[in-house]
Amino acid sequence: MDLAGVTYSLVNLGIREDQGAEISSRIRVINKFNLLCISYSIPYIILSISLKYYLSASVFFVGLFFYIISLECNKRTHFTTAKFLILFATNFSVFSLSFFYGFESGFHLYYFTSPLIVFSLFSFNELKKILFGFFIYLSSIAILIYFNQNGMLENNSMSKSMLTLLYSINIFLALSFCILLVAYFSEFNNRINLELSSINKELEFKNDLLKAEITERKLTEIKLNTLLKDKEILLSETHHRVKNNLAVVSGMLDLQALMYDDPKILHILDDSRGRIKTMSLIHESLYKYDNLSHIEFGRYLATLTEEIKKAHCDPSCAVELQLNLEEIYINVTKAIPCGLLVNEVVTNCFKHAFIKGHEGKIYIELKKYGNSCSMIIRDNGKGIDPDSSLNPRSLGITLIDAFARQLKGHHQFSNDHGTTLKLTFDIL
């Protein structure tokens, strides 16, 4: 592998595809910084050994060791450890060399690059880490200044001319080091800005698509709402017309009843009017209470039973209605047969359950159990008479059985201190 390939591999140590643009760019900066420090340390080590300054050579060698370890930490994705190893290595090297050779050697000049080092390693939202990095460098500078003012940094092992030469070299290297750091930091910012610009353009494009989709959906919603309102108006008008048509049929039966004196015929016509009224109330409830597909059945039963009472209650007996009705919504296909069933049972209660001149009670209970509905109709009348309309061969029983089958429900009569009907069926 050539030098360029090796350098590229070292610069990209620790970078993964799932990392964000800023993290990947900052890892590259850290790797470049380590490589830069390694490239600066090796010539210093060679120069120090050639001049027999073994102390400075050992200091540079320790720093070199930590830079290599920092690269390995980046490779293993221990990024925070890698950053603090850089802080330690740079501060240790500059502080030790300045302490051993004094300010006249110029090694302290590398501290001027410390802000660039800190801001290259940490993002601006890592405030605590930035402050910690500055604290390390500033405290070291303060200690060196204190030692220098007290004459503790005087170097007696190096000649004046060598110190001057070393100072000149350090000025040049510190300045070049600073320029390279600025270049890396600038490259990092440019890369981030380019990637952010690309992301922003993509977000703007997606935002435009989203706005167009939202506009389209709003137009579609407006159209659907308009169609829904038209449908509701049409259904409401349909239920209203059906209710009026049923009223016309009921009126025709009233006219037909005026033409006969036969009690049996009048009884048949009266029962038919009651059934028509039951269906008419269903359609009236649907358009009256703004729900065109489901009816609140408890409220409907309260209205229906009052209508039956007005039509069939004998003035000579006072029959009391006791209602225990939960709020249950039932669709039209279930409500009509259930309403007709209730009409048959309650009408028969008023007609046949109570002796003239006696008081009576009719109790109706409606409860919901999950997806099932339970209804109980009970009176305290004289009970089922084998010769009444509730015997198995009567039209009333036949209709009740038919309506229960239409509901796909189960019903049962009992005759204990009156007549009781229990009906259960699924609401859905």
List its traits.
428 residues, two-stranded antiparallel ribbon, rod-shaped, Heat Shock Protein 90, alpha+beta, 2 domains, 68% helix, five-stranded mixed sheet
Structure report:
The chain is of the alpha+beta class. It has 2 domains: 3-210, no CATH class; 294-428, 2-Layer Sandwich (Heat Shock Protein 90), CATH 3.30.565.10. It has helices at residues 3-11, 21-50, 54-75, 79-101, 114-121, 127-149, 160-257, 263-288, 297-312, 332-353, 395-406, and strands at residues 294-296, 319-325, 329-331, 360-369, 372-379, 410-415, 419-426. It starts with a helix and ends with a strand. The relative contact order is 0.05.
Quick gist of this model?
This protein is α+β, with helices and mostly antiparallel strands. The chain has eleven helices and seven strands.
The fraction of residues assigned to DSSP E strands is 5-15%
- SSE series: HHHHHHHHEHEEHEEHEE
Q: Total domains, how many?
A: 2
Helical amount among residues, as a percent range?
Answer: 55-70%
> How would you state the average pLDDT, rounded?
81
Topology:
Blueprint: H1 3-11, H2 21-50, H3 54-75, H4 79-101, H5 114-121, H6 127-149, H7 160-257, H8 263-288, E1 294-296, H9 297-312, E2 319-325, E3 329-331, H10 332-353, E4 360-369, E5 372-379, H11 395-406, E6 410-415, E7 419-426
Parallel strand pairs: 2-4
Antiparallel strand pairs: 1-3, 4-5, 5-7, 6-7
